[in-house]
Structure formats: structure tokens, C-alpha cells
Amino acid sequence: MPRFLTLADVCEQLQISSAQAYALVHSGELKAIQVGGRGQWRVEDVKLEEYIQESYAKAERTLAEHRRARS
């Protein structure tokens, strides 16, 4: 896998729309950089992996909260 991914690559990996990927970048949830004269967004492969791992952690916290609330 290349070091930097396009937003289209991110969409494919996460199976989301381009609007969703763009929103993740603009919210700061997914770290990205702009490169080139046209300011194309690129996401470093390790940043995508960090986002995925944080998403798993967030899901685990949410599930734990729901379990505590039901107890």
C-alpha cells in the first residue's frame, strides 16, 4: 500500500461516500494534508489506521456505557 492515500482510496477502504470522507477530514477526525497546486487531499496510511483503531475504541466505550446503563 502506498504511504499516502487519496480520499477515493479512503472511501474504498472504509466503504463510505466521498462526502463522508471529506467530512471526516474537515472535522479533524481523520488527519489529512493538502498537496499540489490543486490542493488534493491525502491521508497517510498510518493516520487512516489510527482513525480506524480510535473508532474501535470509541465503539467499545459506547457499548460499555450502554451495558452499565442497563445494569
TrEMBL record:
Residues 4-54 form the Helix-turn-helix domain. InterPro entries: HTH_17 (IPR041657), SinI_DNA-bd (IPR010093). It comes from the Bacteria. It holds the Pfam family HTH_17. This is Helix-turn-helix domain-containing protein. It comes from Sinomonas cellulolyticus.
